[in-house]
Please model this.
Amino acid sequence: MFPIEHRIMVSHILYWLRLEKEDQGSLLKSAFKECKESKHDFYTSILFNLSYLGLSNLLQSPHAYKESYVKSVISTRLKDQYLQSFRQKLGSFEILETCKGDNVYECSGYLETVKNVKLRNVFTRLRINNNKLLAYSHSDKVNCEKCNVLENTEHMLFHCKRECLSKERERFISQVRKLMPSYPSKGTEAKIKLLLDIGTKQEDLIKVICHHVNTMYSLRFIRP
Ligand SMILES: [Zn+2]
Model:
């Protein structure tokens, strides 16, 4: 998702370009001239942004450039810069590897498909390792009390031997295989991606997945 401040910056620059191209003698042209001479915030911010984007040449001869060209150059540069800094941040951020995806700047599928806010909270917490499972808690205890192995998201969703979780997992598999027969034979990574990224547009499947993920996480803490 392209940040809103970038869209604002693009429209500011395009508006400035239109002002530069405004007919001589028009009232708007006079007002803009005064804006430049008095170093109004609007104009100084345009100067700053153009130099930040490496587009100072636009200032010298704004008439030489078409609006569509300027729009596409600015959008591409902003997107590149944004992606670069986003990837740097993501690299140092603890998140399930399988949830990082390729087009990381785009809205993850689950944000569009999971409408319930409480449910989205569960999904996000599981995806970014910010939840109550022992592997992410701030105590020394990281192993599942039942299975004595690291209790992380993968363990809770797919391997934990707690009775309530095993039963829910079986119930889910019998339900999901009717909608997606290939589910049981998928690898863990593909399953995580399907469950936490909701990589499907199939509405009945989305409902089944949402219900399952939420139930698993609730059961883990309701019935120890
Ligand atoms: Zn366990």
Notes: The chain has two domains: 4-90, 109-222. DSSP finds twelve helices and no strands in the chain.
